[in-house]
Amino acid sequence: MNTELHEKRIPIIKIGNFLIVSIQVDMHDKLAIQLQSQILEEIEKTGAKGVLIDISVLEMVDSFIGRMLSGMASMASIMDAAVVIVGMQPAVAITLVELGLEMPGVDTALNMEKGMEMLERRIKDEDYKLY
Amino acid sequence: MLQLTSDSTWEQLGKHPIETEHDIVNVRQFIRFYAKGLKMGIIDQTRITTAVSELLRNMYNYGGGGEVTIEKGIVDEKNTLIVTCVDQGPGIENLDLAMSDGYTSGNGMGFGLPGAKRLVDRFEIKSETNKGTIVRVMKWK
Amino acid sequence: MSETYNIEKVKERISHIEDILASVAAGDMDARVNSETEDDLSGIEAAIDLLIDDLTDELKQREKMQKEVEDKLIKIQEQQKTIFQQQADLMELSSPVSKVWDNTLILPVIGTLDSQRTQIMMENLLEKIVETGCTISILDITGVPTVDTQVANHLLKTVTSARLLGAECIISGISPAIAQTIVHLGIDLSSIRTKATLQDAMIYAMKQNKLSENVKLQTLFTNPDENED
C-alpha cells in the first residue's frame, strides 16, 4: 500500500478550456491506466473541451501505451472532449506503425501550438454547426 | 524450465528478474542503454526496446513473472544484442495462432508477439503447456 | 710434392665454394666465389657464380613484385575505405529534404530505391518534419521506375508515420509499375494521398496551406475573447 503513495502522478494542467498532460516518465501499465482515469475525472471536473497529451519526451510507446492513448481519445470524445496527441518522436511513430498500431481516428499534432490550433478549430466547428 | 543455449562467446550484460512493474521499466531502460552502447541508431534502439517491452508484459501478465538475460556477441559477423525472456507460466496454447498477424491487438497470452517479431532481426520462441515460455530476440548493428 | 699442394688448395677452394653456397642459402645475395685462378676447377667456380647470379636475380625480381603487390593491396584497401565513406555520404545527400515555402517540405527521389536507402529517407524526412514543424511534405518518386514490395512497404510506412506525427505526406509521380506493386500489397489506399505529378502535389499543398491560413484567420476574428488567455 505504501507503494501507491510513492507512485508518481502525472500532472494535469488546465489552460483556458483545455487540459494539458505532459508525460515525462517511462510509464508502466498501471500508471498508464491511472492516468487515463485521472484525465477523464479532470474532464468531468473542469468541463474542459480539449485535452493535449504531450509525448515529446517519450522515447518509446509500446502496444499497451499506444492502445491506452487511443482509448483515451475515444473515452474523452464520449465525454465531449477532443484529444490531441502532441510531439510524437519519429522513432516512436515508426515503431508504432511496425507494431501494427496505426491509431486511426486519433488526432495528432507536431507540437503544442499546432495542437491548440487544432482543438480551437474543432470547437469552432461545433459552434458553427449550431448556427 | 525451458532453455535456449547461449553461445560461449557471448558476453552477459545482465540478468534481471521480472517480478514487479518497476522491473519492467528498469529492464526497458537497460535495453536502451545497451543498444546505445552497441552504437545502434535511435530507431533501432527504439525497436528493440519496444519489442522487449512487449515480451516483458506478456511475461509479467500471463507468465507469472520470470527472468531476462541480456547478452551481446557476434552473430552472422555482426555486433548483436541478445535478449532472452524465460517464464514458468502456463505456456502458449496455440503458438502458430499466437504468432499469426491477426493477434497484434488484443489481450491475452502471446498477443503482441507478431509485432515484437517484426521489430527485431531474429526471433526464437519455445513454449510448453504448464512448463513455460522462452523467447529470444536479437537486434544487430 | 706439387700434387699434395694442389689437393690442399683444391680442398680449400671446394670448402670456399661450400661456404659461398651456404651464404646464398642463408640469404646473402652478394656472395660469389670470385675465383681468380684459371684452371679446371675455375670453370665450375665460374659456373656456380653464374648460377648464383641467375638465382639471386630471380629472387630479387620476385621480392620486387611482391612488394609491388603489397603496395597495390594497401592502396586498394584505402580506396575501398574512401568508397564506403563516399557511399554513406551519398546516401545522406541523395535525398535532400528541402523546405520550399511555408509549411511544405519536398523530398525528390532519384534513381533506384533499395530497402536501406528508403529507410534512411524515411528517417530523414520524419526528423525534418519534426524539426521544421511543416505539416505537409511531398515525396516525389517521378524519378523512380520500380520498387519491390519491401520498398513499397517502407514508402507507405513513411506516410503512416508522418500522419502519426501530425503531418501529411503526399506521394507524387507514381509510375504504373509502382501503382501495381502498391495495390498488390493490399493496403488500405484511403490512408495515402497520391498525386500524379509533383506540380499537382505542390498545388494541393498550397491549397491546404491557404485553407488552414483562412481557418486560422477565421478563428482569430470570430472569437477574439478566446485569445485572451
Explain how this protein is built.
The complex is a heterotrimer of chains A (131), B (141) and C (229). Chain A is α/β, with parallel strands linked by helices. Chain A has five helices and five strands; from the N terminus they run H-E-E-H-E-H-E-H-E-H. Chain A has helices at 2-6, 29-46, 63-78, 90-99, 112-130, and strands spanning 12-15, 18-22, 50-54, 82-86, 107-109. In chain A, helix 2 (29-46) runs parallel beside helix 3 (63-78). With 141 residues, chain B is α+β, with helices and mostly antiparallel strands. Chain B has one domain: Histidine kinase-like ATPase, C-terminal domain (Heat Shock Protein 90), CATH 3.30.565. Helix content of chain B is 35%, strand content 31%. In chain B, a hairpin with a 2-residue loop joins strand 2 (66-75) and strand 3 (78-87). In chain B, helix 1 runs antiparallel to helix 2 and helix 2 runs antiparallel to helix 4. Chain C is 65% helix and 12% strand. In chain C, strands 1-2-3-4-5 form a five-stranded mixed β-sheet, with helices on both faces. The interface between A and C is medium-sized, with 27 and 26 residues.
